[in-house]
Amino acid sequence: MLYWLSFFKGNFSFLNLFKYQSFRTGGALLTAFILTLFFMPKLILWLKNKQAEQPIRKCGPETHLSKAGTPTMGGLMILATGTIATLLWVNLASPYIWVLMFAFLGTGLTGYWDDYTKLTRHSSDGIAGKTKLALQFIVAFITCGALMHLSDGQMGTSIAIPFFKNVFIDLGMFYIIFAMVVIVGSSNAVNLTDGLDGLVSLPVIMCTLVFMVIAYLTGRTDFTNYLQIHYIGGAGEMAIMCGALIGATLGFLWFNAHPAKVFMGDTGSLALGGFLGAIAVATKHELILALAGGIFVVEALSDIIQVGSYKLRHKRVFLMAPIHHHFEKMGWSETTVVVRFWIVSILLALLALSTLKLR
User: Fold this and answer.
1) 164: CB partners within 8 A, 6+ apart
2) Has residue 302 been placed in a domain?
3) Region 132-144: what's the mean pLDDT?
4) What is the Cα 5 distance to its own chain's centre?
5) Residues 180, 152: contact at Cβ < 8 Å?
6) Is 220 a domain residue?
7) What percent of the chain has pLDDT over 70?
8) Number of structural domains, the chain?
């Protein structure tokens, strides 16, 4: 919206700043962060008054019993401030923004329904797993169809291979299935990671930062020619939405750091994961998501391996899944697990960014 102020630069030269995506990305980040810091205490108080308390699994680590009474659904603030900051700073004529917004809010509303069901039932069980998965795949299908329509020719069904110059694999008709799995898998993997105070926030921030850089670079021919990566017209506007969600997540982390005053809930984690999957598909860097979001991949795999092993062999591979609970059972403190996962996520983000040049 503020982008349109640049049209009046003839009368006020300083308004030319609003034309630059880098400036608007910083503005979106600060806007979402400040709005979250200001309004989150009010949301926490409202959630407490509504008794929107996180149901604690009795089969979980004993240390988590002390978290009883902590309000959940704090992800509502991420949805609100992330959306407001995005709409305020992006060029609203960009079709990519509306597609990513659909994926973000669509998966977020699915998470909200799940959280709301848990609260009304006073149980850790929300809506049926098949129902939640079906809704996610519907959102993913519409998102992927729109992104394929926006892509140029064969690029719409191809995936880029990291470490190689302009090397793509065309999946043809199978691409939409692959892309849908990326979005739904990312959404659920981020959700599984959200199990300790502050654990999921920094990996999400680092992963979003990686795609903020990728979106900005792929939207500029000077950088794509230098780095020998593919060009996507208008991709730079997606970097602004990344900035908004980084700011919103940073603001949320302010209140979610140990000991947490509020939990994100499925409302926030499904939305952020859905957005990461969608922007990976939009920028044609789906495989980079698996690298930058390696923490999410490991968390999801640990849960799949645990369930599969128990069903097939009636034996558990981990002391508890997802894997962050395994380390808690080993005797690591919650803060130790969180900080070490943060360190790994930072290293993975740096490695993911290095692939842009190592080609």
Assistant:
1) 359
2) no
3) 97
4) 30
5) no
6) yes
7) 91
8) 1
Q: Report whether the peptide linkage leading into residue 322 is cis, meaning its omega lies within 30 degrees of zero.
A: yes
Q: Which residue has the tokens 């694999």?
A: 169
Distance of alpha carbon 131 from alpha carbon 314, whole angstroms: 27
Distance CA 174, CA 26 (A): 37
Give the burial string for 201-210 (b: 16+ CB within 10 Å, else e): bbbbbbbbbb
Q: What is the span of the domain harbouring residue 130?
A: 23-52+69-286
Q: What percent of the chain has pLDDT over 90?
A: 69
162 membership: H or E segment, kind and range: none
Which residue in this structure is represented by tokens 């799940």? Answer: 114
Q: What is the DSSP letter of 168?
A: E
pLDDT in tens, 259-318: 999 999 999 999 999 999 999 999 999 999 999 999 999 999 999 999 999 999 989 999
Spatial separation of the C-alpha atoms in residues 31 and 241, rounded to whole Å: 12
The per-residue pLDDT for 126 is: 82
- 5: in domain: no
Residue 324 in any domain: the answer is no
What six digits make up the tokens of 220?
Answer: 């500029």
pLDDT tens per residue, range 144-176: 999 999 987 667 888 888 877 777 888 988 999
